[in-house]
Amino acid sequence: MTLYDLESATRVVSFGCDVTPREGQRVDQWEVPAVSEGYEAARDRIVANVERLAAELAGGR
Distance of CA 44 to CAs 5, 16, 36, 54, Å? Predict the structure, then answer.
């Protein structure tokens, strides 16, 4: 990701780092376990969050 990508996005998903939203920008902070604490748990949480986000963006929510 570049600074341009971050600054021009209308929505940002972040996990593991803080992102300060710009005016008019939505930032979703996902709570995801560290991969070092368990790859499977981190993967499962990311997959669940992506599926929920995809459904939301598709109008399923």
Answer: 26, 16, 14, 15
* Cβ density class 15-25: b for 16+ within 10 Å, e for less: beeeeeeeeee
Instruction: Output the pTM of the full model.
Output: 0.78
Distance between CA 36 and CA 18 in Å, rounded? 19
Task: At 36, list the tokens.
Answer: 């070092």
One pLDDT digit (tens) per residue for the chain, 61 residues: 899 999 999 999 999 888 889 999 999 999 999 999 999 999 999 999 999 999 999 995 5
SS3 per-residue string spanning 15-30: CCCCCCCCCCCEEEEC
